[in-house]
């Protein structure tokens, strides 16, 4: 799977169909490796050639094939490891050194392959933008412009591409391009005939939503049903098997021209959030190209009626003479640069013109006005350049797309040059807003830590969206606590913090951000005047601090999750920065909504984890009792990433004449199973301590489970351990639908006990007690099926692996450690089922120690009596 942004995860780099680079990489790499191995084998004991094995994976890496590099790299490492069999140097220092060299070399080859692959994809993306830019000057007719644009997009960025024009809420399909299927022409024709499936928000022309692309990472059957015009159309859409979809608005010069839709299907690619941002930029660039295609027709008539036509244009247009002098400027250019009229602009000349503003490149480099004027005078003009323009005398900024066209005479001499300045501020801000919202949306899945999520919000907004941003959350005492803040000027952070500390804000205060908590409505201050500050100041010091913060414009929006307002996000731009507008307010409200959802999700996750920990502490047994003459160890692994409780349990407690131990497993897992776990464990403990009879304890649990409304089942092994010096010790147990315990005796492992019905199963139960003799050093291992049913890459863990893990372990602690290690290395990902183990060993040494301590106690008592 390969996204158009060039990100290609390693696991997704294993395609079902191999590319030409993959085949060549595999063929040449394998041949190279085979040749070097053959030479090494022919040399007998000479091991000098092993290190040369690493050349093989660099062959597919040079071709940019990640898949082939991985395969050849693994084969190379395997060949280096096996080379010790013919070089006769297994275990020798040189053997290990050369193997390490081969592994490191193979890793470098993989890194090189990934870099080469990403560079190739990145170049394809740039090629798409270049292809659009090459025709964006309006030199081609509109129909040919559309044709060239779609040819550049497919198949680099999509398997299917649709361009739809929208005018007065009517959608017209303008172009379709399909690639990669034998019947591509038939699919194109079918897509042209069917009504376009454009989201309603784009058709309605809602400005706030036009900035946000429609993105479906995974297109499912329900999506296709919504788009289908009927059963036959649904079958057609299903036959395409679309996997991922992006629809982005095409806007230029403040108006929407339509939408660009990109779809992946048979290439098996899936789009990412980076692809969404790229698609939005691409859509807007295409909109400029299409709009300029129409504008070029107007420019042809300018040669006949130049003054009349240019005076009607909304774009700023200036004309320079061959020496760089300013010959013409329309009214739009005069308004842009804050001149009273076009005549006043002409009278100011180039020097007066450049004295009005500063310009920066898209990368942030300040452009020198004198050099720009010199280039204009020399006739060296940028065909297209995107710059950021800021008026020196005014406020705010604009993003401008400059396009210059030299007009030459028959002899090639420069007559004059026409430069148009197109305001693409809305485009750039839309692009940034899309990126900002995408980054905010990533918070929803990035962290389950509430505090970390809240602290991340201001970092996203500053400095691109606002000069500073703060998160304010109600505290128990009614204050609005400023829990996170970011400022583009670190020196002002102390001043902002001092302002809040000395003059706290309360939720019940009339007006201000406290009102936002109560009402859930945003606050919009496009301009904060000195009068506004004075009206809101509590005293002279407060006013001084407010003036020092230098606020020029502000937005305050609720950080909400549904109908619940969690806090307030405050965005502030300093005086001298651009003022916020209604579009910014819409973006800020959406940021608040997404941030609120992220914070609420993180808070709920923390609460869930806390509840799970509390349940776990309550459901796990207390410290196990000391059993004279026995050693005991346990293991517990709950299923789930957050849940620490489940359906498996164990317990051990003292009864008359000894101890009782139990291992059980109730149906289900997680919190639902935890309630049954508590019922079963505590019932067995109570009945066992009162009666000491395992069968009676099992019967009481069985009746309790049957009294529940829903079918509740539990398997268990109940073991009675005598407090006796007899050797061997005679233990008794019953098994209720549970895996039979394993007896480890003298290196052999056998199952013990007799299986009886499950606890809670219909019918009248009957359990037969079995006797087990434990000699010194013998171990009895009780376990749940979560051990043997654990999933790994190679299938289930199984009883054979269980037996292998415990066969040679000398004591219960080692048994549990070995099982935990084996399960940890075998299981893939999060366990699917809970697992519990209880290991018990008869210990002659412990009995002797207990006996000697008892004798010493009796001797001391006799001495004291004497």
List keywords for this structure.
866 residues, 6-stranded mixed beta sheet, disordered N terminus, Beta-Lactamase, 46% helix, disordered C terminus, alpha+beta, single chain, 23% strand, globular, 7-stranded antiparallel beta sheet
Description:
With 866 residues, the protein is α+β, with helices and mostly antiparallel strands. The protein is globular, with a radius of gyration of 38 Å. The chain folds into five domains: 11-130, no CATH class; 135-298, Beta-Lactamase (2-Layer Sandwich); 311-428, Beta-Lactamase; 447-609, Beta-Lactamase (2-Layer Sandwich), CATH 3.30.450.40; 620-849, Phosphatase 2c, domain 1. Strand 23 and strand 24 (748-751) form a beta hairpin. It contains 29 helices and 30 strands. Helix 2 packs antiparallel against helix 3, helix 5 (93-134) runs parallel beside helix 12 and helix 17 runs antiparallel to helix 18. The protein is 46% helix and 23% strand. Mean pLDDT is 78; it is low at 1-17, 295-305 and 854-866. The strands form six sheets. It has a seven-stranded antiparallel β-sheet with strand order 7-6-12-11-10-8-9. Strands 19, 20, 21, 22, 25 and 26 form a six-stranded mixed β-sheet that branches. The protein has a five-stranded antiparallel β-sheet with strand order 2-1-5-4-3.
């Amino acid at each position: 799977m390969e996204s158009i942004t060039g990100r290609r995860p390693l696991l997704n780099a294993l395609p079902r169909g191999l590319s030409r680079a993959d085949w060549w990489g595999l063929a040449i790499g394998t041949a190279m490796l085979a040749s070097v191995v053959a030479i090494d084998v022919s040399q007998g004991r000479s091991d000098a050639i092993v290190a040369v094995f690493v050349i093989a994976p660099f062959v597919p890496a040079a071709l940019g094939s990640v898949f082939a590099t991985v395969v050849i790299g693994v084969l190379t490492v395997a060949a280096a490891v096996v080379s010790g069999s013919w070089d006769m140097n297994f275990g020798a220092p040189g053997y290990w050194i050369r193997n390490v060299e081969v592994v490191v070399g193979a890793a470098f080859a993989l890194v090189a392959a990934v870099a080469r692959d990403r560079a190739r994809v990145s170049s394809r993306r740039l090629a798409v933008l270049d292809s659009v830019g090459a025709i964006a000057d309006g030199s081609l007719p509109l129909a040919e412009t559309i044709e060239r644009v779609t040819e550049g997009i497919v198949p680099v960025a999509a398997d299917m591409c649709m361009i739809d024009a929208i005018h007065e809420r009517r959608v017209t399909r303008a172009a379709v391009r399909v690639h990669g299927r034998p019947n591509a022409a038939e699919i194109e024709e079918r897509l042209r005939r069917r009504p376009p499936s454009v989201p309603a928000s784009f058709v309605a022309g809602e400005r706030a939503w036009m900035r946000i692309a429609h993105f479906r990472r995974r297109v499912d059957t329900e999506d296709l049903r919504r788009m289908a015009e009927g059963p036959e159309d649904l079958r057609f859409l299903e036959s395409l098997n679309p996997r991922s979809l992006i629809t982005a608005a095409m806007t230029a010069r403040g108006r929407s021209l339509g939408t660009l839709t990109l779809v992946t299907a048979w290439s098996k690619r899936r789009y990412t959030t980076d692809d969404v941002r790229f698609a939005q930029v691409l859509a807007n660039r295409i909109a400029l190209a299409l709009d300029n295609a129409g504008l070029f027709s107007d420019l042809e008539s300018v040669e006949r009626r130049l003054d009349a036509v240019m005076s009607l244009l909304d774009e700023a247009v200036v004309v320079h003479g061959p020496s760089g002098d300013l010959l013409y400027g329309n009214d739009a250019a005069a308004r842009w640069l804050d001149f009273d009229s076009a005549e006043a602009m002409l009278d100011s000349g180039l020097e007066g013109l450049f004295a009005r503003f500063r310009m920066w490149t898209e990368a942030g480099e300040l452009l020198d006005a004198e050099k720009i004027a010199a280039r204009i005078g020399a006739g060296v003009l940028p065909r297209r350049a995107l710059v950021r323009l800021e008026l020196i005398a005014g406020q705010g900024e604009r993003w401008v797309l400059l396009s210059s066209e030299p007009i030459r005479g028959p002899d090639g001499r420069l007559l004059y040059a026409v430069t148009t300045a197109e305001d693409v501020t809305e485009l750039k801000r839309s692009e940034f807003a899309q990126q900002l919202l995408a980054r905010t949306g990533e918070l929803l899945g990035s962290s389950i830590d509430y505090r970390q999520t809240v602290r991340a919000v201001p970092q996203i907004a500053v400095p691109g969206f606002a000069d500073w941003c703060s998160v304010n959350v109600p505290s128990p005492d009614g204050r609005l606590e400023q829990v996170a803040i970011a400022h583009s000027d670190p020196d002002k952070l102390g001043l902002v913090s001092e302002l809040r500390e000395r003059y706290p804000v309360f939720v019940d205060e009339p007006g201000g951000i406290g009102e936002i908590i109560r009402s859930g409505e945003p606050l919009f201050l496009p301009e904060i005047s000195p009068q506004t500050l004075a009206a809101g100041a509590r005293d002279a010091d407060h006013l001084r601090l407010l003036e020092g913060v230098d606020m020029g414009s502000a937005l305050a929006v609720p950080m909400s999750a549904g109908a619940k307002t969690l806090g307030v996000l405050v965005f502030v731009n300093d005086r001298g920065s651009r003022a916020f507008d209604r579009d910014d307010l819409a973006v800020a409200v959406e940021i608040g909504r997404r941030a609120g959802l992220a914070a609420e999700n993180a808070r709920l996750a923390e609460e869930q984890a806390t509840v799970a920990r509390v349940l776990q502490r309550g459901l796990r047994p207390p410290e196990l009792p000391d059993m004279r003459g026995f050693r005991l160890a346990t293991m517990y692994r709950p299923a789930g990433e957050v849940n620490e409780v489940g359906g498996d349990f164990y317990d051990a407690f003292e009864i008359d004449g000894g101890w009782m131990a139990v291992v059980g497993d109730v149906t289900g897992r997680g919190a639902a199973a935890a309630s049954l776990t508590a019922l079963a464990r505590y019932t067995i403990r109570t009945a066992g301590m009162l009666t000491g009879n395992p069968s009676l304890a099992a019967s009481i649990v069985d009746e309790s489970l049957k009294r529940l409304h829903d079918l509740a089942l539990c398997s268990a092994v109940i073991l009675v351990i005598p407090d006796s010096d007899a050797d061997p010790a005679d233990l008794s147990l019953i098994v209720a639908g549970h895996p039979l315990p394993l007896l480890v005796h003298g290196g052999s492992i056998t199952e013990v006990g007799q299986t009886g019905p499950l606890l809670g199963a219909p019918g009248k139960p009957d359990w037969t007690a079995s006797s087990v003799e434990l000699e010194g050093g013998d171990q009895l291992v009780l376990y749940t099926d979560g051990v043997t049913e654990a999933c790994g890459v190679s299938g289930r863990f199984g009883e054979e692996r269980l037996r292998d893990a415990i066969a040679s372990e000398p004591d219960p602690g080692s048994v549990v450690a070995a099982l935990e290690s084996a399960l940890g290395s075998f299981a893939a990902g999060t366990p699917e089922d809970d697992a519990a183990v209880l290991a018990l060993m008869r210990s002659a040494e412990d009995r002797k120690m207990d006996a000697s301590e008892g004798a010493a106690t009796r001797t001391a008592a006799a001495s004291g009596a004497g």
